[in-house]
Specification:
Order of helices and strands: EEHHHHH
Shape: globular
Oligomer: single chain
Helix content: 40-55%
Number of domains: 1
Number of helices: 5
Largest sheet: 2 strands, antiparallel
Structural class: mainly alpha
Distance between the termini: 18 Å
Radius of gyration: 15 Å
Number of strands: 2
Strand order of the largest sheet: 1-2
């Protein structure tokens, strides 16, 4: 079941709450934080360029940190490439599943 809209060859994946009752991220950074709050609390020091931006100790507090990370998107992305163990936000996983199914046809 996809969490977004599909019409023929077009699929729109958008941010959704990672857990029922949790806020929905409004940007990639915020969605990533909600999907990976515990991982970020435990591993932010491993993120060389953007780790100092994460000061919160839970998903709600980390959500405000997304605004500090957003201007540094490239640094954040490069940090994530070299730091395994995080999970993909639901809306991105949804879009990738749809794309994989479309290319398999």
């Amino acid at each position: 079941m996809f969490l977004s809209g599909t019409d023929n060859n077009t699929h729109i994946a958008y941010q959704v709450a990672e857990v029922a009752g949790q806020p929905c991220g409004r940007s990639f950074e915020e969605a990533f934080i909600y999907a990976n709050a515990k991982w970020l609390v435990d591993n932010h020091a491993k993120l060389r360029a953007s780790g100092s931006k994460f000061k919160g100790k839970d998903a709600t507090a980390l959500g405000t940190d997304a605004y500090e990370v957003a201007p540094h998107k490239v640094d954040f992305a490069l940090d994530l490439i070299s730091a395994p163990g995080w999970v993909t936000p639901k809306y991105i996983a949804d879009g990738l599943r749809w794309l994989a199914l479309r290319t398999a046809l």
